[in-house]
Amino acid sequence: MGQLLGELSGLYRSTEAASESYNAIEEKLKKQRKDTRRAQAGLARARTALADGRAHAGQLARQQYRTGVAGGLPPAVRMLLMRDPYRFLEQGHLLRRAADSQAAAVRQLTSGEKQHATAVEQARQSLERQQKLAEKKKRQRDTVRAKLKEVEKLLASLTGEELSRMRELEQQRTDAAQRKLMESGALGGPASTGQAASLQGRRALAYAMDQIGKPYVWGAEGPDAFDCSGLTARAWQHAGHAIPRTSQEQWRRLPHVPLNQLRPGDLVIYHSGATHVGIYAGSGRVVQAPRPGGKVKLTPLATDPPIGAVRPDGTGQRVEGAKQAR
Which of 217, 227, 306 is nearest to 262 (CA)? Predict the structure, then answer.
């Protein structure tokens, strides 16, 4: 039975790792979609500017044709033939201005063509990256579904008595691991009795506690279902502090804190690949969306071996005497 429990736990871990990878790809895809929209908007502006430049250049060409002097006589001869030489000089000044305007129009048109070509290439590359990410997301989705089928297949192969014995063994192991953690002093005295939470940490924890009983669904971030990092990200968003979407990015980008300095609202990270996360609730417990088929619940911190913890709001405002999770 212990071997079966180990196999099932391994399947759950690999499924959650695949789910977090899916979430990471989805976050990249969201960003790439924004980049693609910006690139396409830039292309539209470049097209408009190019069309305006061409229209302006055409207008100048037509104007020059209408006002041009036939015969190609030298300027000095044309001046002698005119009744009003001063008018010729004035006309010459206007012609120079027109020539300058034409040169500016040519430069603008040339620049517009270059900008348009650049915008076309940027939009093409951005759309190509978006398509590749969408294909990668689909492959990762299929990977998650395949792993979930493995879990379902293993569970379906067990009798009711075997499932009951497995749950009992899992609970015994969790209780033993929790006692060992609490007795080791790894959480420290203050953490076990209730270290003060920050204002935002208190709000994040309150939100997470309100989600208890909602189902775990991979890729979900509320309000009706959550995966592990979907719950933590949404809880801190509710508290007014945006954090990365995935457990790996939460572990990589947020400030680390020792387990013996944990306070409610901090995030506890699990597994070597940082593929699982829960919200510390005080007294050695966490709120978490545990795994496929489970529900958001309050559990011992040592349900799985933690690799560390992070504090989303760093040294945010503290609220002395914050209540512990119920």
Answer: 306
211-224 burial code (b ≥16 CB/10 A, e <16):
beebebebbbbbee
Q: Which two tokens stand for residue 7?
A: 């196999």
Q: What are the Cα distances from residue 301, in Å, to 203, 205, 286?
A: 20, 15, 5
| Three-class HEC string of 41-55 | HHHHHHHHHHHHHHH
| Average model confidence (pLDDT) across the chain | 78
Q: Left if phi > 0, otherwise alpha if psi is -120 to 50, otherwise beta: which for 308?
A: left
The pTM of this model reads 0.65
CA distance 5 to 21: 24
pLDDT in tens, 252-306: 999 999 999 999 999 999 998 899 999 999 989 999 999 888 899 999 999 888 9
DSSP SS3 for 62 = helix
Alpha-carbon distances, residue 325 vs 203, 215, 221, 267, 281 (angstroms): 11, 20, 22, 14, 5
Q: What percent of the chain has pLDDT over 90?
A: 31
* Paired residues of 257 in beta bridges: 309
At CB < 8 A and 24+ separation, what contacts does 100-107 make? 101/60, 102/57, 102/60, 102/64, 105/53, 105/56, 105/57, 105/60, 106/57
- The verdict on whether omega for the bond into residue 300 sits within 30 degrees of 0, i.e. cis, is no
Per-position DSSP letters for 85-135, written without gaps between them: HHHHHHHHHHHHHHHHHHHHHHHHHHHHHHHHHHHHHHHHHHHHHHHHHHH
